[in-house]
Amino acid sequence: MKIGISASRYTDMRGFEEGLRQLRADGYDCIDYTDFVDTETAKFRCSDTEFDAVILRERAFIESVGLEISQTHGPWRWPPQDATAEDRCERFEKMVRAIRGTALLGCRYFVIHPIMPWGRVEADAQIAHDLNLDFMSRLCRAAVSLGVVVCLENMPFPQQSIATPEACLRLVRETGAPNIGMCLDTGHCTMHGVNPGDAVRMLGRDMLKVLHVHDNDGEKDRHWCPGDGVIDWRDFGAALREIGFDGTLSLETKAVSGRERELYEAARRLAGK
Fold first, then answer.
1. Which of 27, 70, 135, 137 gives 20 to 30 Å between its CA and that of 177?
2. pLDDT of residue 260
C-alpha cells in the first residue's frame, strides 16, 4: 500500500515546486492533486491548448521528483452553487475539463462530491436523488473514454440524503456505470456515527477506489491527524487488510507544521509498513 497526501497541504505553504519536493522528501509516494478544486483560476479560464500545456508541464515536474498522482479532486465550491440548471451546467463543464486534466496527468481516479441543490440543508430528497443520478451518470459517460474512474465521496452533512457511505454506494450502484466507485472519507464517516472500518468492509475491494484519511472529534469536520480524535484506527487498518485494499492510503489533514514526521509515521502504521 502506497502512502499519499493532499498536495495542497504542502503547496499552499511552500509553492508548487518547493512544496512537492518537500512532500517527497518527507517520504510520501503519491499526491492527491487538488488544483481542480477552485474553479476561479487560470486553469478554468484559458483555452484547451493552454490548459493541456500547463497540465503536462506539471505532470512532468511531479514525475521528475518521484511522485505519483493517485487521485485528483474535482471542483468544489462552498457554499454550493447547484441550485439552478445553469449552475449545474456550468459546474458540469468544469468537471469535464478537470476530468480531461486528470487523464493528462496520467491519473485514473477523479473524486467528486454530490451536488447539493439547497446547500447544507436538503429540501427534497427525491429531487436531490434524481439530480445527482443524472449528473453522475453523465459525468461517467464523459470520463469513460478517457479511462477515468469517477469516485463519489461520502459527505459530513447529516441533513443530506446522499452523504453516508451507504447512501453514496446506493447511488453509485444505481448509475450502472462501469467507471464509478467510492472515495471513503474517514472523518466524514464519524459525522454520521459510522465506524470507518465498517464502511471499508461494506464497500469492499471492488467499490473502494481511493481514501481521504483524517480524524476528528465526531462533532466537526476538523481534518485532524490520525490518532488525535475518536476514530478506531486499529480497526480501520485491519479492515483495509481484510478486503485486500491495494490502493493509496491518502491523508487529507490540515497543515501540521512541526508534526510532519509524526503524521507520516501514523500513515505508515495504518498502511502496515
1. 70
2. 87
